[in-house]
Structures are given as C-alpha cells and as structure tokens.
C-alpha cells in the first residue's frame, strides 16, 4: 500500500459519505468501515471525548457492536486514553504487552495484537481518537501513520461542523472553539494568560524506571503515606461513628492494606516499570479480572481500586493535598477550579498567578478577599468552565464585566491588550492623585484607608496615598503558616507591618477564623452554618490561649507606638468586657516583664452582627472606635449567605433598611464621639461610598485598588447635596435607590 492512493481513496470515500443521506451516527459507522477497508485493518474505531474527559466508543468496524456507546475509557486510561491525553500517536505491535494497556472484555479485542491510534484534533485540542487494529503482530508503517493522521484531521473537521456524530453527542468539540462564559466579578482586574486546572488528574508519562531499587523505595513510601492518609481521613470525628458508611470505609481501607495488591505493584516495579506505571498497570489488569465477575459487588470494588490508584498516583506526584508545584506553573497562570478556599489559593505561587476562575464563589467570599489581596483578577459563577477547558488553553478573565473568554481569537486578545493598557493609564491617573487629599467639592475631608492582610500589601499604602490600614486581617498570616505561629513569630510579623506602615495607623483585627477560613492545624468541628458558628471572637473567648497569644504578640510588636485592636463578630456589648480584661491582663504581664508597652492601646469592635445595632448606647461606652463589617452585616441583615452567589447578590445594600441601620451607627458615633469606619467591600465601590459619605461616614477602608476610583468620586462630590438626596430618599422609603443615586451622580458630573 502506498500512502497517496490510500489517502486519496479515503478522502474520496469520506466526501461521498458526507454527501449521502444519513444521520451523524450512520456517517460515522460508514467512515470506520471505509477506513478499515482501505487500510486493510480488521478493526477501525472512533472514540470521542465526553464532557468529563472520558473517551466513549462512538463507532467501530470489527469490535463488538454492543460495545458502541457502552465502553468508556477514563481520562488517560489505556493506550487510547494516552493517545488523547498526551496528544501522541501510539503504534504498538503487541498492544497487550504495553504497561498502559487497558483490557475491555466487552469489546472482544483480545484477538487483536497490533494497534495504531492517532488523536483526532483541531487547533491543538483533542476531540477523540481514531484507532486501527490487526490480528497480526506488526508495526504500522510510516505511510499507515500518515494516512491515519490525515484521515483523523478530516474527521475532526466534520465533527466540528456537526456533520457526523449527531447532535445528541455531547462530545468535546466545544473545546477547540472560542467560548465566553458569563460569571460574576469576585476580584477586580483583567488578566490574560493560560489555564492551569486546580488538582488536575495525573497522567503517567514516564514508564520505564532507571533505577528499579530506588523506584521500589518510592513505591513503598507512597503506600505507607496512602495508608496513613486513609487512617487519618477515616478517623475524622464525623466519619468515626458507627453506621453503614463505616463498612464501606473499612472495605476501602482493607483494599489499601491488601497484600496481593502490594505484591503485584512491587512485582511490576521489579519488572522495570516506574512506580506510577506500575500503579496504572496493576489497576488495568485487576480491572480486567474484576470485569469478568459481572456483579455489583465487584463493580464497587473496582471503583474503590480506581480511587485508590488515583490517590496513590497523586501521592507519588507529591500532590496529595496541594496543587501543582509552583515551578510547574506558567508565568501567566489562570487558575480554573470548581471550588476554591482561601488557603488553597495561597498554596499557589502568587508571582505566577494572573487570574482565577471558579464555578462557584461570590464577591464577598474569603477566597475573593484573598484574590483581591493578591491582586488577581477573579471571576466566580463561571458555570461549566472546568469541563470546557484543557490545561494550557489561552484564557482571559475580565472581572470588570464578569466575563471569561476561553481560547479567544486574536482580535479579542488584541482588544483586551488595549483594554489592559487603558486601565494601566487610568491607574497612572489615580497615582497622580496620590498626594491629593480626599476632600469633597464642598470641603468635607474623608479618610481613606486600605484593607490588608499580608506584608506584601503594605507597599499599597504608600502607592495609593491612603491614610492608614483600616483593616488588617491577621488570619491570613495564620493561613499561610503550616503550624500555629508562636508568639515570637507573630510579633515579628506584626512589627514588620507597623514598620512598613511608617507611622500611619494600622488597625489589627484579631483572628477571624471559622466560616470558610480554616486552619488545617487547628481542630475545628465541621458545622452546618459555619458563618454563624464558632468563629472569630467566639473561638477567641472559648480558647483564650489563642487570643491571648495573639494579643501578647501585638502588644510586644507595638512597643512605644499606638496599638489599634479590632475585635470581629462581636454580638453583644457585654462580649467586649472579657476581651478588654484579657487585653488588660496581657498589658500588665508585659509591664511586669519590663518590656516597653504600646504608647496607647485603642480597642474597637466590628459591627457585623445586626443585634449590636440595638445596643449601641452600651457598646459605645465600651469601645474606642467601631468599624462596620458590611460584608457580614449585610449577609446577616438580609439572611443571605455572602458566599452563595444565588442569594449573595440578591439584595441591594443601597436600600432603605440597611441604610437606616448605617445612619443610626453614624448618629451614635457622633453622640458618643466614638469614631466610626466602614471596612466592608461596599466602601470600595464609588456609588456606595458616595452614599456612605452622604450618611455621614468620614472614614472608609477598602481594597487598595479602590482608593483611586473612590477618591476621584470624592473630589467631584458635593457631600451636602448628596446628603439631602439620600435623606429624602430614606424618608420616602423609595425603592430603586441605586438608579436614583446613579442619575444624581451623572447629572452632577460625579465619576462613579
Ligand atoms: C466584613 O465582614 O465586612 C469584613 C470586613 O470582614 P471579613 O470580610 O473579613 O469577614
Ligand atoms: Mg466580617
């Protein structure tokens, strides 16, 4: 057979098939028949990628017809999976000898020896695999490979055009095309880069071991870790009780301790395979045996084995808990995840992170807060994004609109590059305002502070020209640490923060752990409603050692300077008493030890639990300042979970009820001469900041990037006229306040 005629024949036949009547499936059936005929192969099959990354047998000539749409290979499984995952041609004279071979008895393929598989791809995206098989053991010629590759290209074109496979097939054709997903902004900014999937599946690429003895050591160490990790996992207090789940877990654990499994793994490594290849090999051969036992029990055992094997592969790759090694990240990483917690995001090398796309998550979640602190553009509620991308895809995160562009065309990339340049210019304009005081057109001075949580945020203080740090979220230091930081380490960190603030005030908020902010080294019970659970000062008062250590470190760090301490999640005025007692006690200890105390200690409460609004007289007498945590206050006032985007953005803070509450706070603050700040996200949105100033707030704390836009708004604002408008709207209890205020801003030429 020479390539030219064979190729020409196939192309002609493909054209004819396309012009003949028939649905997508019928055309695919004809295509495999033709290819098998021309290539003199006993088998020709087409596997197409499903949404979950598995490969489904869509058409075959030669294998059992019943296997069509019934056989699915997991992502990366078997030779066909390898071909798709690694985007390589596989040419094997004796396929069953290959360590990655996955035996599927339902196809009846055991009589075929040689196998040639090529990826069906378009624009670098693999849509499926085209395979031929023969009974004889033979290596396919270069001409055969060329013919099959060229045929696969044509098949790919027809797949993308929808001419084959049928509309019901939810194959991954989409993955080769540009797409836009509309999500919601989590952290402002625009990022262009390349996709890294959070916790991607491990694909075994290195098959033969150079040093089998060393490989055996690696394997054994991984098995020990696997067993220990399962023991730990299953001893979790919520799993340790009796019940049906216990039997299932025990069976799973028994599998991990199975001597036969371990022996087979060891033998495979002794035979020259890498530990990873051995895991895959044993997984495949055990699966083949299990599938012959056609009952539910064995199918379940097979699932356990698959799970265990995947886990063992992750351990071998050093990825059992955390994500990709930072060095493996591209320098313009766009991280894509189904869900992500703040600590997980912190596992990544921030210097390489540009953007974050998550399927859940909202602007008020703590991962959004961390993303903002890291300066990463982040979009949440990007439905289905994980299924629609492949690692390495180009992507654009536009958090200004909430849009995510996957595999954008060059026009879109050019437009966004312009937009990024424009934003950079805007940033330069904001920078020019750095030393301009935030005074309204009618002479009202507003103090603007930044929210921070890491030492690296401190340079923003100078760059933005802010008046100080209105909220330093101390828990981020704890989240970065692998163990509970001791008093000295904490004191060093806080001193460094104060030193970098260079005399500007810093409000340290004591630990706000709980909710979605989890410290893995602290035992925190799983709660049904963590946001309203054992968090922040509640934990601090119940476990005073934790709070005491932190207060001690803060007192030491602020020797000779002013210390501002802010207590989160205060729910009753009386809760301030034990807190103040604890601080005073630590102060006395510090004095007794002859250390230099802070020049002044000011203790404030965060107002974020609505109950406090009805106890303001009592509260004001117990505090030196208050700060409104509007993120939590709004979630509790509206009973709308800030992390649940379905409800999180359902209610508008610019509505009469919450604004009246905020006004009562300003009034109480004036009456008792207790300064009030607002440090939730709303302070950083110009239109909301406008309303806050109208209500009488003279101090706001926000993400550093918001200082420029908010200051620009303030410079063109007439605070007195805005107050009158808001007063009037509140009196009338008007709905649609946001629109009214927006109209006011545009009529007055205020930039919002
Ligand atoms: C808030 O609740 O508004 C706040 C500033 O605190 P955090 O977002 O850290 O809960
Ligand atoms: Mg809060």
Give a brief description.
The chain is of the alpha/beta class and 752 residues long.
Provide a descriptive summary of the structure in words:
- By secondary structure, the protein is α/β, with parallel strands linked by helices.
- It has four domains: 3-170, 2-Layer Sandwich (Beta-Lactamase), CATH 3.30.450.40; 179-416, Phosphohistidine domain (Glucose Oxidase, domain 1); 433-446 and 630-678 and 680-752, Alpha-Beta Barrel (TIM Barrel); 468-629, Phosphoenolpyruvate-binding domains (TIM Barrel), CATH 3.20.20.
- 45% of the residues lie in helices and 16% in strands.
- It is built from 27 helices and 22 strands.
- It has an eight-stranded mixed beta sheet. It has an eight-stranded parallel beta sheet with strand order 21-20-19-18-17-16-15-22.
- α20 links the parallel β19 (600-607) and β20 (625-628).
- α24 (686-695) packs across α25 (704-715).
- It starts with a helix and ends with a helix.
- Mean pLDDT is 87; it is low at 167-171, 241-245 and 321-327.
- Bound molecules: phosphoenolpyruvate and magnesium ion.
- The site of phosphoenolpyruvate (PEP) has 11 residues, from β16 and α21.
